[in-house]
Design a protein that fits this description.
By secondary structure, this protein is mostly helical. About 80% of the residues lie in helices and about 0% in strands.
Length: about 220
């Protein structure tokens, strides 16, 4: 009787061991599948974020083109009005030598080519010579972008804040986003959080609301 009992116990132990090995193998496979799923999800989110950034940049460029076209139309209208007010016999006045729309287009092109110092100088000239022009708020905004690209985050913050002082501007949400990011670059987390919240509160329909919300959640969770 002893031998059968010993054999039974040995077989039972072998069965448990085999079952344990099978369980471990299944857990390892499940863990590998989970890691693969998480990796695929992260790649999908990265791709979606990249597409969103590209779309936002395209929209920004379209806005810049529209703004330049509107400025050219406004310049043309002002010139026609000034010609209509000329006394008879005076002829056409000499050109002022400063075309704001053309200067803006040149400065914007320099910025796109990453010639930030030159762009900064050109945008500053527009602000100096035509501070009330239709493109003045855009020029002020790109002064901030140029300073930010050069790593001068405190100057960038001041420039973006000035954009908000314009009575009428379409760059307020852009500027508010960059105010938040400037604070973040300066290591001033609380101010960055407050700035992101202001963007979401005052510009909830902005195309920057979603990325701002993501950045805010990351900051609040860190």
């Amino acid at each position: 009787m002893v031998l059968p009992m010993v054999l039974a116990m040995a077989l039972s132990q072998l069965g448990c061991a085999a079952g344990s090995d099978d369980l471990v193998a299944r857990l390892d496979a499940s863990d590998a599948d989970l890691r693969d799923h998480v990796t695929a999800l992260e790649r999908s989110l990265d791709a979606a974020y990249d597409r969103e950034k590209a779309l936002a940049e395209r929209l920004r460029r379209m806005e810049e083109n529209v703004a330049m076209m509107q400025a050219r139309v406004a310049d043309t209208g002002e010139r026609i009005d000034s010609l209509g007010r000329l006394p008879a016999g005076n002829g056409v006045p000499a050109a002022t030598g400063f075309d704001v729309a053309a200067a803006y287009a040149a400065a914007y092109a320099q910025h796109q080519k990453q010639e930030y110092e030159a762009a900064l100088t050109a945008f500053a000239q527009i602000m100096e010579r035509a501070p009330t022009h239709a493109l003045a708020d855009n020029a002020q905004y790109w002064i901030g972008e140029s300073q930010y690209a050069l790593g001068r985050f405190r100057q960038a913050l001041a420039a973006f804040t000035r954009v908000l002082s314009f009575e009428t501007t379409e760059k307020d949400d852009d500027a508010q986003l960059m105010i938040a990011r400037s604070y973040l670059a300066l290591g001033e987390k609380d101010q960055a959080i407050a700035a992101f919240r202001r963007l979401l509160s005052e510009h909830s329909d902005s195309e920057y609301a979603e990325p701002a919300l993501r950045e805010l959640r990351y900051l609040e969770g860190s």
